[in-house]
TrEMBL record, chain A:
Organism: Trametes pubescens (White-rot fungus)
Record bears the keyword Acetylation: no
PROSITE patterns membership: UBC_1, UBC_2
Keywords of the record: ATP-binding, Nucleotide-binding, Transferase, Ubl conjugation pathway
Pfam family, one: UQ_con
UBC core domain: residues covered: 30-177
Family indicated by similarity: Belongs to the ubiquitin-conjugating enzyme family.
Active site: C116
Entries under CDD domains matching the protein: UBCc_UBE2C (cd23791)
The name this protein goes by in its record: Ubiquitin-conjugating enzyme E2-20 kDa
GO molecular function: ATP binding; transferase activity
Region (Disordered) location: 1-30
Lineage top rank: taxon: Eukaryota
UniProtKB/TrEMBL annotation, chain B:
GO MF entries: ubiquitin protein ligase binding
Matches recorded under InterPro entries: ANAPC2, ANAPC2_C, Cullin-like_AB, Cullin_homology, Cullin_homology_sf, TPR_ANAPC2, WH-like_DNA-bd_sf, WH_DNA-bd_sf
PROSITE patterns per UniProt: CULLIN_2
GO BP of this protein: cell division; metaphase/anaphase transition of mitotic cell cycle; protein K11-linked ubiquitination; ubiquitin-dependent protein catabolic process
Protein name: Anaphase-promoting complex subunit 2
Domain Cullin family profile as annotated: residue spans: 413-588
Protein species of origin: Trametes pubescens (White-rot fungus)
Keywords from the UniProt entry: Cell cycle, Cell division, Mitosis, Ubl conjugation pathway
Short name of any one Pfam family annotated for the protein: TPR_ANAPC2
Amino acid sequence: MDQIMSSLAPRTGASNKPAAGGSGAASGGSVTKRLQSELMTLMMSASPGISAFPRSDANLYDWVGTIDGPAGTIYSGLKFKISITFPPTYPMSPPTIKFDSACYHPNVDLVGGGICLDILQDKWSAVYSVQTILLSLQSLLGEPNNASPLNPDAAAIWDSPDQFKAQLMKHYRPIVDDAE
Amino acid sequence: MQQIRTAFDLVGKARMLSMLLENFLEDMRRQQYLIEREVAQYMAEYENSSQADSIVRLIFRLVSWYVSWKPIAELGLTIHAAYTLAFRTHIFSIFPPSFSRGFKELIASTFSLVSASSPPPWVIPADLPPIDPPPRPDYQLWIACETLGLLERYESLISSVCYEYIEAHVLETCAKKWDEPMLPKLREWMTEKIVPWMIMPYARGARSAEEARAMLQGVGSRFDYHVCKTLCDLRIQEIFDIIIDYPDSQSALQDLKVASSRPGFEDFEMMVNRVRGRIQECLQRVDQRSQLVVNLRKANKKRLLHPGADTKDILTQYVSIIRCLRIIDPPGVLLYKVADPIRKYLRERSDTIRCIVASLVGDGESGDSLVDENEPIQPLQQMQADDFSDPNWEPEPIDAGPDFRTNKPSDVISTLVSIYDSKDLFVKELQVLLTQRLLAVKDGNYERERRNIEILKVRFGEAALQVCEVMLRDMTDSRRIDQHVQAQKSVPLHPTIISRHFWPPLQTNSFTMPGQFRDIQESYAKEFHLFKPDKRLHWLSHLGTIKLDIELQDRTVSAEVPPLEASIVEFFSQKDTWTVDELAAELKSVEKTAIVKALTTWLDLGVLKEEDEDRYKLLEIAEALPSGQKAATRAAADEEAPALAVQQQQAEQMKFIEGMLTNLGALPLARIQTMLKFAPGYDQTIEQLAEFMEAARREGLVIVKDGMWKLCR
């Protein structure tokens, strides 16, 4: 099945660039359209380990995402749930992203789930998409920016992997499918 | 008597006759209670028995009253007329309402009286006065009715009786009879049954056949019109079924055409009243035609354009409608009006294009193709402006709407293709279909495909079919290249070499062939590279077939199998026992289900044996197989792979389902269905989705628990 799907990728998902391309018009219809096309691109691109989907069919502005810890890092084999909320001005303003699963990470608020990532704040640009955000987050897991930590404890012990792993696993809760 | 006459003469001379008449009428009025009593008596009798006999008796009784009171003829016409008028006025005033009902019944019964008569009813009495025996059984009755003036008074009633009689007959004889033209038969029936009957009420006074004809002319044409109209109405009611039965129902359509568009007196020439006919023609055309359109549209909506109908059936019916309405109405106004909703509906169906394309190339499996073999192949016709320099130009029919497009006699295919705005869609779908067909050809005979392409070129133009042309040339080139390679070095491999850019995306779940097959492929690729240095072969190992002789200890098994099957049996030449997981690891990109299917083929052929769950062993020495098992596994293996386009759509659908299940956890089916609205072009029902999910579950992609679906991880 996977093979057939990836063969489809060039056809439907050939342009990973967002359709709206940063145009100024931010009416509700065009946001919906943009989000729909991003969803389509994301579904068809089959990037391993990242995924997102609208939380319900009623509200296209509220998505749930899943990020797998990248292989070869301390997060390998772990899964994290995030929530993505798009503002009505999207893509002129960045979406609000939070970790729903507790994530022990130098740049993630352990309790609130807030994330310190430049492209989600001042470096945001309309050419970014859900897919690029998810990919950035995934790489952030393996390569934290210890210079501006949200979780100073985590930043402090980052260089001692054993200790860090112990802390990480203490807070990590595996995702249960049935818990919606 | 002589004295009376003299007396009257005297009175007349004295100008007293009018007074005498008044006196007489006054006396008559006084005696009228006698008649009144009898009328009441007979009518009561009729109301009790509901037998038309009472009416007959009443009529004859009234005639005898009339005769007995009649003044003598010598008094002149004036007095006679005054008497008759007074008498009639009186009896009409005393008839109860039920009389007209009874009279109608009586008239209706006269139809059978005519047929009961023994002498040929054509005979018109040469002279009027009563003769013995009367020329026909109902003669006396009609005379009596005329005497009482009933015929004039109840003229409309009489014709309505005849109308009803005609209607009943048409319905009885013509309903559901479409295989022969009914109109001539009805006309014949008119001549044999109705015309003789008509002579009595409408042409009693005729002294010769010519005179009778002249008298019957007007009323006859009305009745003939009614026959046509009744038949029309009936056929319009049945039009949908008539179209289904096309071409067996052609006669019915001819009837409809003749009956609806012409006054139609060809064989009734004696009754043609040309001017009248013209007016009728126009009137009839307009109102009956709109009736036809309304009716057919309603029937189509109810019986054709719903999800339960197969697209193929809708198309067939549409083509039949086109053909049928062209018989009835060559300019195509009716067709345009009826076809509009069908075309709209077909545009919404996803598999319409495929159906049309399949019929374009005359797909073998679909018994009778939509395209008539005899119909000349023409280029697709575009809408064109009227050519006003054409001396045969005719204006659009009066009931054509403002947006009516004169698609002059264009062929069926042009009409079908014009459902869509562009023909690119068709060409694309055509390529997919052509791919399937070309790759299915085994004997190297592409004549049929070539012919199809040539036909389609005429329709769609050279440019549109260029890609198809390349595909076809690839097939012949492959053979040529193969011959060359074989000449250099004999290899038991005959590949089809296709140009990647010109073919629609094929399934690319290719795998590397093991063992000797890979060696063969590589040596072939080497030769090919020598022959065409600028090109490189990329093997699509999953397509094609391999002819194998498997030499085992006690026997040799010959088989022609797909490459995957061959690869698998190749593995068994390395060692005797393999598990599915081991094979999957060797073949890497191949799905387990495909492997199991391939293994099943060998189980059927008795080459392998399933030792226990997922473990297969080579049978060097044959073992008897239970035959039941064999049949069952074969059936499972024969399942056909769905068409490429469907697969693509299902793959998309699966992606979305994976996406939502990954992120939202386990979901019930209804929720998946609503969430799938995010997938563009998703149009499945929840039942179809259930089936789809069930299939995914069998493939091991998802699992279901308590109605909640989740991904298998």
